[in-house]
Write a structure and sequence with these properties.
A: five-stranded antiparallel beta sheet, 14 helices, 28% helix, globular, B: 247 residues, Rossmann fold, seven-stranded parallel beta sheet, 7 strands, 50% helix
Chain lengths: 433, 247
């Protein structure tokens, strides 16, 4: 089976098995020395496959195993996709708030990458909603993981990039969500400092705060808009999210370049200028901003893109951006997307989590931009900034080691648990985990 | 309405369970492994608010099937229809298969199905029986010969049941299946495209009250099977000899 990472950085012909029964997970796991589990394969980086590992596709494990409305607790199989999960829980006005921006991602994948949503400044990452995990490991068999049982493996598994075994089912603690829409307030921003100042204001609970910035004009670097989404209720129910098949189509060549990015940014800015200051937006549009905008990624063409998502400690945010601006003047990178949001939590092991500001850049994959990104990697090491391993498929072993303080602890604990290092992906090979 | 789905834990059986439950029917789901059945039961009950009963049944053992049906005498009386989306195969099913495995294949794909169907028909005056054959049963083959033989037996049994059943209002249907998007065909490069099990399940549900009939799915197999039937067997025999010589 031919598999390709979402950012098109890596593709390979490999063996893929699609179990449908519990005993098939056991059976297929015996068929290869090296394994890795796949959810929906929407991860930007190749963390669900590599040449030497047999891929266990868990998409048929998408069932609701138990639901207790009173306890606000649900157990689902890890292959269930976010849209399917929400279509069920939202009927009971319940959800988990830490959801990635695309609803066709599997919950198992979201756990393996310790996904965060737009509200990660308030709600943290998905780790906070997980009560229990059932893991299958080729050597250890079926394991129950929680804070009370196999705690160390539980910790390694959340954000563990699928390297501890196959996450088969998960129990979530749900929280109430009695809203149907969002009130979106936009605010024009003129610079990076303006963005940061607005981001760090005290907002009400349950609001999503994020920005869309431009980077094509060095004189107005960071110009854009700030958005604040506050949930609100109307009489209608939240529209059910429809299923969609994974479409791997991409244009043969890249449509994004300095000129098209500049045109797009200027047009989009003008459109936002004309838009009302306050608008009502649907749940779907706010929580899953990438629905219907898939062409944005296809426009990067067959060579794909690079997304650099960085968790920057607030103390170094200003100086980091001074250096970024300076590098932009020298390297003139083509940045297609640039955005800020708040993050909270505790950074441990391989988790992209911590207190600070989450900065996202999307780049066209070309030599000039890759050179620029190498310099950004050096800044990450210098300022103890955390690059997201699941977003950026360029990150090398050195940057990983320098930026992730507990990388060696993770490795040691993993080897302790799994001496044969059964579960491996391109990502784990590249980072020498 | 209550339906018994034999072989419900995966593939077509699992999809049929969802389609019947979505249409507010209670289900009794059967298969070999309780854990898979319990997961399916829980999912269906949570999503569709219908009653699902689990019955662990190993079709490869006729003794077990007989015992289970005897100890659950009321079971068949309560149900309005029975479906047999069963298709058991061994990866190394060749003409030299050992006798135990031959028995298991014949039992799972034919004799257990026939036994349950006969019990249903003897206790009910109305209802539906839906069986699933295979295009592999139309011509002898090198791979899966026992599976193919069992499926051919099933077709013959279906025809007999239709003849016997004239006085009762029991709708008996047989779907002759070509390649489907199931685990059995996953990753295999096949000459013809695979049929969608979702579309098939919806078709089965829609047709459930139609008169006793044979259906081909995907429909293009109707033409292929027609051609297979009109070409004399000696032609295939000669063709096979030539192929062997060339190999």
């Amino acid at each position: 089976m031919y598999l390709k990472s979402f950012d098109s950085s890596y593709s390979v012909e490999t063996i893929l098995k699609k179990p449908e029964k519990y005993r098939e997970i056991e059976k297929f796991s015996k068929e290869s020395k090296k394994l890795i589990t796949m959810g929906s394969n929407y991860s930007y980086t190749p963390l669900a496959f590599c040449k030497k590992s047999l891929v266990i596709d868990l998409s048929k494990f998408n069932r609701i195993l138990s639901f207790d409305e009173k306890k606000k607790e649900i157990t689902v199989e890890a292959g269930i996709k976010i849209f399917d999960f929400l279509n069920f829980t939202l009927d009971y006005n319940l959800w988990i708030p830490q959801l990635p921006g695309y609803p066709y991602i599997s919950l198992g994948g979201a756990i393996a990458t310790n996904a965060h949503g737009k509200s990660c400044g308030v709600d943290g990452t998905i780790r906070k909603s997980i009560k229990k995990i059932v893991l299958y490991h080729k050597t250890h068999g079926w394991l129950n993981l929680s804070k009370e049982e196999n705690k160390e493996i539980f910790d390694l598994t959340i954000g563990g990039l699928g390297l501890t075994g196959t996450i088969v089912s998960v129990t979530f603690n749900l929280i109430e969500f009695n809203f149907t829409d969002f009130l979106t307030i936009k605010k024009k921003i003129y610079s990076i400092t303006d963005s940061i100042n607005n981001l760090k204001k005290n907002y009400k609970d349950k609001t999503f705060v994020y920005s869309w910035n431009t980077a094509h004009d060095i004189e107005n670097f960071g110009k854009g808009y700030m958005f604040v989404n506050t949930p609100k209720k109307n009489n209608e129910k939240i529209q059910k999210i429809k299923n969609k098949h994974n479409n791997n189509f991409s244009f043969p060549f890249c449509l994004w370049n300095r000129l098209t990015i500049q045109i797009f940014n200027e047009v989009y800015l003008k459109l936002l200028n004309f838009k009302k200051m306050e608008t009502e937006e649907s749940f779907l549009k706010v929580v899953f901003p990438f629905i219907g905008k898939e062409n944005y990624f296809r426009f990067f063409g067959s060579k794909g893109f690079v997304e650099s998502q960085l968790l920057v400690p607030d103390a170094v945010l200003t100086i980091f951006f001074d250096e970024i601006k300076y590098l932009c003047k020298i390297y003139e990178p083509s940045i297609a997307l640039f955005s800020f949001k708040n993050m909270s939590g505790e950074q441990r092991l391989l988790r992209f989590e911590g207190n600070g500001t989450c900065v996202t850049f999307d780049f066209v994959r070309n030599k000039k931009n890759l050179n620029f990104l190498e310099k950004v990697d050096q800044l990450c090491i210098k300022y103890k900034i955390l690059p997201s391993l699941s977003k950026d498929s360029r990150i090398n072993e050195n940057t990983f080691k320098e930026c992730y303080e507990e990388s060696e602890i993770f490795k040691k604990k993993l080897i302790n648990f799994d001496k044969d290092r059964v579960y491996q992906s391109e990502l784990s090979e590249r980072l020498k985990i | 309405m209550n339906y018994l789905i034999v072989g419900a834990s995966s593939g077509l059986g699992r999809e049929l369970s969802y389609v019947y439950a979505k249409n507010k029917n209670n289900l009794i789901i059967c298969s070999r492994k309780e854990d898979d059945l319990n997961a399916l039961k829980s999912d269906i009950e949570n999503r569709y608010k219908v009653k699902v009963t689990v019955l662990v049944l190993d079709l490869t053992s006729q003794d077990e099937v007989e015992k289970k049906l005897t100890s659950n005498k009321e079971l068949l009386k309560e149900i309005d229809g029975v479906l047999f989306p069963v298709g058991m195969m061994f990866e190394k099913d060749t003409i030299n298969l050992d006798v135990k495995k031959i028995h298991e294949l014949i039992s799972a794909n034919f004799s257990s199905v026939a036994f349950i169907a006969s019990k249903f028909i003897s206790q009910k005056n109305e209802g539906t029986i839906t069986m699933f054959g295979s295009v592999s049963g139309y011509l002898g083959r090198n791979l899966n010969p026992y599976y193919a033989a069992a499926k051919r037996s099933l077709e013959s049994y279906f025809e007999s049941m239709v003849f016997v059943n004239t006085k009762r209002n029991i709708k008996i249907q047989l779907y002759i299946l070509g390649y489907l998007e199931t685990n059995l065909s996953f990753g295999k490069k096949l000459i013809l495209p695979k049929g969608s099990i979702k579309k098939l399940s919806e078709k089965v549900y829609k047709n459930k009250n139609k008169k006793s009939k044979k259906f081909f799915f995907p429909a293009w197999w109707t033409v292929i099977i027609f051609l297979l039937k009109i070409i004399p067997f000696s032609f295939f025999s000669i063709f096979n000899d030539i192929k062997k010589k060339n190999d």
